[in-house]
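Handout, section B. The chain below has 186 residues.
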Amino acid sequence: MRELRALLPESLEIVPQNELGIAEAAEPHATFVENALAKARHASRAARLPALADDSGLCVAALGGEPGVQSAYYAGREGSRSERDERNNRRLLAELKDDRQAYYYCVMVLVRRPEDPRPLIAEGLWRGEIARAPRGVDGFGYDPLFLIKEKGKTAAELDPVEKNRISHRAIALRNLLALLDDADRP
């Protein structure tokens, strides 16, 4: 939510679903787009409002695209978010050898109503590689390991404003806003 609020124009108001008393949706699907669509439809149905949802994760070439849609739970579901992040990062480092190419991927979905037959779907891809050791304190998840070569920094070392400008989520949101602008034209 913090990243989305920083990226959205002030004219668009977003309200987190937990503030509306809406529980999180299940994410049982094998693809980012299916999970994002399920989350958007769930929130729209419960709120009786348009809903925006995303699904994102880290994909590593040498691991056949893993952790992928299981990024948040790559090393198990136990513990707090920070404990899971630490375990996920340790597992990722243990499984990698020389090929360290990776990308963050985000799918963002906007539905105007629960059964919207034409949901707006946008994606964002942020290329990088996996560092040999964690660096930086900002961000969450795999950010301390996600190295942006041209910057020489991990995502966790970037200033939050800069990260919000170049991340996979920023790219997906820009693409979604362009689709929304197109959808509103006669």
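Note. DSSP finds five helices and five strands in the chain. Compare this with the example in section A.
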